[in-house]
Write a structure and sequence with these properties.
Low-confidence stretches: none
Number of domains: 1
Largest sheet: none
Number of helices: 21
Radius of gyration: 24 Å
Shape: globular
Order of helices and strands: HHHHHHHHHHHHHHHHHHHHH
Helix content: over 70%
Structural class: mainly alpha
Strand content: under 5%
């Protein structure tokens, strides 16, 4: 037991090393100059705006988390309450540090592009994203690994308390992603519709009052929000797999419980190596450099996983193949997403703009629907392969699904680094335009931004796939725990009307949340549009470039809208498992989770890919194709991009977190649930 306890210390210790690496990378970013005069002023505005929003958002979150902690203490015990606090704190800290580093890196990327060229700009922007990636992986290992050491490494005395960590992280992720998404898209839609369409000025024009708010939104939504999103899937997959292993009656159960954390620990090492590989290749083609890191890190991880399992004793090698299926599946989903958001489908959407905005909408919706098919087939294949391999190795099949999810997410450090690079590069382009740094600089930042759109699309695809597998693992853990209490009386059969009722309720919830978040963006954008129009109309000299816009007012509008509108989705996500579980029973709740999972995955893929395709169709035209900027085709694709913005950056991403929140809350309360509810 003493040896096992010592081994359990390695994940949090490696997490500490990862945080040191993140600090070193951050200091490398800070070595680059942040520009002078106007450049520095714009960078400071973005940083200050993002900081103000995050601080206010976390104040709201603190109240919500405090309520959860009290409820956890009352019904589940002190250990679970502590775990909720630690999970929320680690997720919040990862998002905050990542946002802070990104807002310091964006202005330095623009300055590096001006002074040192494309290779230096790539290094700075990638370093900025790497801080986020390393913090997500490291804080997950420190928080969850530390709790595992105290709660579960002694034979699993308090193993169920780990689920509180997942609930705390999931709630923070939902609020951060939804709140950040509403903020960034209300500003983006407002700035585009008034600036590009009505005023006829370029994107990121310094005369547009909404541009600073748009840049702030990129950091709070696409960096901090995405970081918290991936963090909760990363930790959720490990928690679910540990919970499943705990129910396995086997001599290897302790090693099977420890394995997810051990894999995540070596995944962090592989990610650090991957970040180093990207740096070494940064002087070459940027796309090639980033792809090298993306593909080589998982390969290194698999080799390390082989030796890890060989030395952990009685773990069957079939488990390694489960891990491999998850890692390969994650890469494949990312590549499929890249095709639909950056390949021929994008050109077809752009070409449809020659006949107006209606055909742009039709073709974009069609691409989004088609893009759902192959990723879901890949997910189904991973589930089939992993369960078969695990069963063949003498382990319960659902453990295979959980460990496959862990395999997909283990190299999250490099995956998140490449994803967070995108908003940094995008911000750098905006700063270059607003500061008038010249066409040469803008060409460099545009090329990095274009690549960033691709990496962001891959990141979204990966996040959806990872969330789906993580949610399935959590649902499996829920089913296993309820079965321990009720035995054969608990069964999720399609012939059971309570299961069917639960499924229909579950599939409704993603549509409801999507509607709420889309409406929130529309309402906030309406207010933003009116404010931008007012400033163009009332501020003398603004259109002539002799007066400054009131950007702070736009940031204030976006902040208020985001904080006001993010509460309802969060309450619904947390409350529905309890309402269904206690009202209709554990069986109906199992059905609800199944329906919610299918609805969330399909909607997430559809909205993310349709939105990404519309966005890149607009950029394809803006490069000079099909008439270029100012043409009728351009006006048509701008409409598609405007509709796609809340699709890909607000409603779509919220689906990943929604199903994980509902699944994790269900797992946490599973020991309290009646088999049959109050009403039936």
């Amino acid at each position: 037991m003493g040896f096992y306890m010592n081994i359990a210390l390695f994940p949090p210790l490696l997490g500490l090393i990862g945080m040191i690496a993140a600090f070193v990378v951050y200091m490398l970013v800070m070595k680059y100059p942040d520009g002078e005069d106007k450049v520095k002023k714009i960078g400071d505005q973005i940083h200050t705006g993002a900081l103000a929003f995050m601080k206010t958002e976390y104040k709201y979150l603190l109240v919500f988390i405090a309520v959860l902690v009290v409820l956890a203490q009352m019904f589940l015990g002190t250990e679970t309450a502590i775990a909720v606090i630690v999970g929320a704190a680690c997720s919040s800290l990862a998002g905050f540090i990542g946002m802070y580093a990104a807002t310091k890196a964006n202005v330095r990327t623009a300055t590096a592009a001006q002074k040192d060229g494309a290779a230096a700009a790539l290094s700075v922007s990638f370093y900025g994203g790497s801080v986020m990636g390393l913090c997500v992986a490291s804080l997950g290992l420190i928080g969850l690994g530390g709790l595992y050491y105290f709660y579960a490494a002694d034979g699993g005395t308090h193993v169920h308390a780990l689920e509180g960590f997942g609930m705390g992280a999931s709630v923070v992720a939902l609020f951060s992603r939804v709140g950040g998404g509403i903020f960034t898209k209300s500003a983006d839609v407002g700035a585009d519709l008034v600036g590009k369409i009505e005023a006829g000025i370029p994107e990121d024009d310094p005369r547009n009052p909404g541009v600073i708010a748009d840049n702030v939104g990129d950091n709070v939504g696409d960096v901090a929000g995405m970081g918290s999103d991936i963090f909760e899937s990363y930790c959720g997959s490990m928690i679910a797999t540990i919970a499943i292993a705990y129910t396995i009656q086997s001599a290897a159960s302790e090693n099977l419980m420890m394995l997810p954390l051990a894999l995540a620990a070596i995944g962090l090492v592989a990610s650090i190596i991957g970040i180093f590989i990207v740096k070494l290749r940064s002087a070459k083609e940027p796309a090639s450099a980033l792809r090298s890191g993306t593909l080589l890190a998982p390969a290194i991880f698999i080799v390390m996983a082989f030796f890890l399992m060989k030395n952990m004793g009685d773990i069957p090698m079939g488990v390694l193949w489960c891990v491999l299926s998850g890692a390969v599946g994650g890469v494949m989903i990312g590549l499929i997403t890249e095709y639909y958001t950056g390949g021929n489908p994008v050109k077809k959407i752009a070409e449809s703009g020659e006949t107006g905005s209606a055909t742009v909408m039709i073709s974009g919706l069609s691409v989004g629907m088609q893009s759902v098919v192959i990723p879901i087939i890949i997910l189904a294949t991973i589930i089939l392969v992993s369960t078969s391999l695990a069963s063949g190795a003498g382990i319960t099949g659902v453990y295979g699904v959980g460990i496959a999810a862990v395999g997909m997410l283990s190299t999250v450090g490099i995956t998140m680094a490449i994803d967070a690079y995108g908003p940094v590069a995008d911000n750098a382009g905006g700063i270059a335009e607003m500061a008038g740094m010249g066409k040469e600089v803008r060409d460099i930042t545009d090329s990095l931004d274009e690549l960033g759109n691709t990496t962001a699309a891959i990141g979204k695809g990966f996040a959806i796939g990872a969330a789906a597998l993580a949610a399935l693992a959590i649902i499996s853990a829920y089913s296993a725990q309820v079965s321990l209490a009720y035995g054969d009386a608990f069964a999720l059969s399609l012939t059971d009307p309570m299961v069917l009722v639960g499924m229909f309720i579950g599939i409704c919830i993603p549509f409801l949340i999507s509607s709420i978040t889309m409406t929130a963006v529309g309402d906030a954008a309406f207010e933003m549009i009116n404010e931008i129009r007012r400033q163009f109309r009332e501020i003398s000299g603004l259109m002539e470039g002799t007066a400054d816009p009131d950007s702070e007012k736009c940031v204030e509008i976006a902040t208020k809208a985001a904080l006001k509108k993010m509460m309802l989705p969060g309450v619904i996500a947390v409350a529905m498992p309890a309402v269904v579980g206690f009202g209709l029973g554990a069986i109906a709740l199992g059905g609800m989770l199944a329906g919610g999972l299918l609805g969330c995955v399909a909607l997430a893929l559809f909205m993310a890919n349709a939105g990404g395709a519309w966005d890149n169709a607009k950029k394809y035209v803006e490069k000079g194709n099909l008439g270029g900027k100012g043409s009728d085709t351009h006006s048509a694709v701008v409409v598609g991009d405007t509709v796609g913005d809340p699709f890909k950056d607000t409603s779509g991403p919220s689906m990943n977190i929604l199903i994980n929140v509902m699944a994790m809350v269900s797992l946490v309360i599973s020991s309290l649930l009646p088999l049959n509810g109050i009403f039936f």
